[in-house]
Amino acid sequence: MAFSGTYELESQENYDEFLEAIGFANAKTDFKVITEVLQEGDDFTWSQIIPNWTLTNKFTIGKECELESMLRTKFMTTVTMEGGKIIIPFPQYHFTAEISGDKLIMLCTTAGEKGVTLKRINKRI
């Protein structure tokens, strides 16, 4: 499927500012995040991996599910897809992901007039 694959962080913008905005500044790492995505139709398993830390969420497009945030907080939400973009409303930010060529582009945007957008570009490996 379109999203399935393993991706390595290639570049990012506003990383420090984003972590600070969500109160997670102490989690900064210089490791390259690996993202593994398994897509089977509308069912996804999405993992973010660095040494000694893995966060995995499973969801189905259009169905309410329980996810876990970077802060290890569990919450209920409905993941949607619009125009080929995955959209997830996390409690502290809005997440979108799309495939462009062999890249996985992820945006995390905090709310408010001083919102911060973390942009991560990941290359398929």
TrEMBL record:
GO terms for molecular function: lipid binding. Gene3D superfamilies: 2.40.128.20. Residues 5-22 form the Cytosolic fatty-acid binding proteins domain. InterPro entries: Calycin, Fatty_acid-bd, ILBP. Belongs to the calycin superfamily. Fatty-acid binding protein (FABP) family. PANTHER family: FATTY ACID BINDING PROTEIN. This is Gastrotropin.
